[in-house]
Amino acid sequence: MTFILGLTGSIGMGKSATAAMFRARGIPVHDADATVHRLYAGPAVAAVEAAFPGVSVDGVIDRAKLGRQVFGNAEAMRTLETIVHPLVHAAEQEFLAAARAKGANLAVLDIPLLYETGGERRCRAVAVVSAPARIQRERVMARPGMDEERFAVILARQVPDVEKRRRAHFIIDSSKGLDFAQSQVDAIIAALSSTA
């Protein structure tokens, strides 16, 4: 039986780097964000363009144009989620079926908005990647195109870090360097591989 671990963390916490650490240890990881990118280049294009005219360019969703229509607009975001979430969930199920077929003891679902979308119900445990707010802010504000207003809107959509940590089975501290984070990942793999 494959143990399903949810991996999440607020913006700028280091979740993507942590997911790569699981992958480097041979653990299959399903990346919800990467799945959305694939969908925006194929299966979801027609439906998203129909809901938000003008956001596709040469058969691919232009994320910047889409962002201008949905960012900060709760109703538009809900419309987009009703299109995209079922497709992401279907891709996730295919990933898990493949992991089980290969006999994987552990599989990771990397889902940025895991708690916000109820994704924890599909996992046997959840690992939250976290760092102090000061470090999070430094990381996020260093990103191209980021400003205080955009950061505030993103944070408002996310369950607060303190609540994520409270609900987590495992907390991975990403503020003390890659080696420290890797050691925490390895400890989780060891613990869960023995319970699968």
Q: Classify the fold: give the CATH topology of the largest domain.
A: Rossmann fold
For the record, the CATH class of the largest domain is: Alpha Beta
Total strands: the figure is: 7
β-sheet strand percentage: 5-15%
Distance between the first and last residues' Cα = 6 Å
CATH superfamily of the largest domain: P-loop containing nucleotide triphosphate hydrolases
Family: Belongs to the CoaE family.
EC number: 2.7.1.24
Protein name: Dephospho-CoA kinase
Subcellular location: Cytoplasm
Summarize the entry for a quick read.
This protein is of the alpha/beta class. It has helices at residues 15-24, 32-39, 45-51, 63-70, 74-101, 133-141, 148-157, 161-167, 178-193, and strands at 3-8, 29-31, 56-57, 60-61, 106-110, 125-130, 170-173.
